[in-house]
């Protein structure tokens, strides 16, 4: 079979990367039409399982199937160890930063971050000032978006410290690959990911308040069926064996949180919440919230329930704060960052603004509060009209934007209509913080299926891949813990 894997090497080369060589040997032995047949089977499988996502702001059917690519993204064991160390370091610094800004604010007084970027940030919640939480852990589940350049350097594209999504697709992608190509896992030694729900549940239990029962009760709080990630909420609750609840399933009595059960009320110690801060408690935040739990924030402040992730974590993944994360690593840990940021122009700075306006056709410009690939300009792919429209937006409100160069991103072999061809990818590994830190070996790989596209978001036409971390004979990859 002509695999087309000559594009699996570094940018500008035709060599097959060493991690892909065992996979290529297996791929060369399969019938030429097998991938096409298996792609149809994968589509049917994902539709039957209901693995879709919602697209807001569009007419017609807003439920879409996320395209699943059959060619895995493969990472060598040595590369993964290096990446894992950097991920853990970064999340430790982010947790230290969040604890600091809601207590002593040492980093602001030291002038390492402009105070107004934090205290005037819409994600900063003054109500959290001075609140003590279990283990001083704010982001129990972090999703760190990573890109890789053609020179094999990893860069952090953004941090997701609030309610990172996508882990269900990581797990289902592996399940699909094992169903569709069971024999390949005999030819390639791949680290498992199926233990993630158990690791997540253990992390949540470790994060329980000190005054709870010996076996903490954990529940997953969802906004409901209309949320774009509802499939994931159902999936994770089932996999962990915990109750999936909505706001009206919970009640607060004497600053403690209870679930309404058939046999009466049952206390809840840890809530893995998948709704935004503003809607969490109508008594504390938005009074018109119909999906929150009245009084839950007071129970949280009293130390009687753990919310994961913590309230107010959005400051840590704001794109205007992102450029300062390497400084957080140095300030809190006394270490040099193992993972670098993408070079970033902060457009609230006059010099950065001037540079960006002069080089818009070369840059990627993002809203500091944007997500999902919306509200951004990809200069090299934009029309003159789109560039000028964005220029006006930036001039009107420069503090709302950052700009980054379009890096020479690495590509990954991808099965498209013309065969196997290179496409740009990113990676979202998931870092869990409880008594220990755990990193599932791999993560969610998103792929820009359109030729030449740099935007991998599902809402913008991107797809997903199974992510393989190769094991070696002395690997400590399975545990993923310190």
From TrEMBL:
- Coiled-coil intervals in this record? none
Q: Which InterPro entries match?
A: ATP-dep_Glu-Cys_Ligase-2, CP_ATPgrasp_2, UCP005522
One family from Pfam that matches here is CP_ATPgrasp_2
Domain Circularly permuted ATP-grasp type intervals: 72-448
Q: Which PANTHER family match?
A: BLR5612 PROTEIN (PTHR34595), SLL1039 PROTEIN (PTHR34595:SF7)
- This chain belongs to which protein, by name? Circularly permuted type 2 ATP-grasp protein
Protein species of origin: Ferrovibrio xuzhouensis
């Amino acid at each position: 079979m002509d695999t087309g894997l000559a594009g699996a090497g570094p940018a500008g080369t035709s060599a097959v990367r060493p991690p892909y060589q065992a996979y290529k040997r297996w791929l060369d032995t399969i019938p030429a039409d097998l991938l096409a047949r298996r792609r149809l089977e994968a589509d049917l499988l994902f539709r039957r399982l209901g693995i879709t996502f919602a697209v807001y702001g569009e007419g017609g059917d807003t439920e879409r199937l996320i395209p699943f690519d059959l060619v895995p993204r493969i990472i060598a064991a040595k590369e993964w160890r290096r990446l894992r160390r950097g991920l853990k370091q970064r999340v430790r610094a982010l947790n230290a930063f969040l604890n600091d800004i809601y207590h002593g604010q040492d980093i602001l007084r030291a002038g390492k971050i402009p105070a107004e970027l934090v205290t005037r940030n819409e994600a900063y919640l003054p109500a959290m000032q001075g609140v003590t939480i279990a283990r001083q852990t704010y982001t129990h589940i972090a999703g760190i978006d990573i890109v890789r350049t053609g020179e094999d350097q990893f860069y952090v594209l953004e941090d997701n410290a609030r309610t990172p999504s996508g882990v269900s697709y990581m797990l289902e992608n592996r399940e699909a690959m094992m169903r569709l190509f069971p024999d390949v896992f005999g030819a390639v030694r791949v680290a498992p990911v199926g233990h993630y729900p158990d690791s997540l549940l253990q992390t949540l239990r470790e994060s329980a308040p000190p005054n709870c029962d010996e076996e903490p009760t954990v529940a997953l709080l969802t906004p409901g069926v209309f949320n774009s990630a509802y499939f994931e909420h159902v999936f994770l609750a089932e996999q962990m064996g915990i109750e999936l609840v909505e706001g009206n399933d919970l009640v607060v009595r004497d600053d403690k949180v209870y679930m309404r059960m058939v046999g009466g009320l049952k206390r809840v110690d840890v809530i893995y919440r998948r709704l935004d801060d503003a809607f969490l408690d109508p008594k504390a935040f938005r009074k018109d919230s119909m999906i929150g739990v009245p009084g839950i924030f007071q129970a949280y402040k009293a130390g009687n329930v753990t919310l994961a992730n913590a309230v107010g974590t959005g400051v840590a993944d704001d794109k205007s704060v992102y450029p300062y994360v390497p400084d957080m690593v140095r300030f809190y840990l006394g270490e040099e960052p193992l993972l670098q940021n993408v070079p970033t122009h902060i457009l609230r700075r006059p010099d950065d603004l001037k540079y960006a306006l002069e080089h818009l056709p070369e840059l990627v410009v993002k809203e500091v509060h944007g997500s999902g690939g919306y509200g951004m300009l990809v200069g090299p792919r934009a029309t003159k009209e789109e560039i000028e429209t964005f220029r006006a937006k930036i001039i009107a409100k420069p503090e709302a934007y950052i700009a980054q160069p379009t890096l020479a991103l690495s590509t990954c072999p991808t099965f498209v209509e013309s065969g196997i061809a290179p496409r740009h990818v990113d990676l979202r590994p998931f870092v869990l913080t409880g008594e220990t830190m755990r990193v599932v070996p791999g993560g969610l790989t998103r792929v820009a299926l359109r030729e030449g596209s740099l935007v991998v978001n599902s809402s913008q036409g991107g797809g997903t891949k199974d992510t393989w971390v190769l094991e070696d004979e002395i690997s400590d990859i399975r545990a993923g813990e310190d």
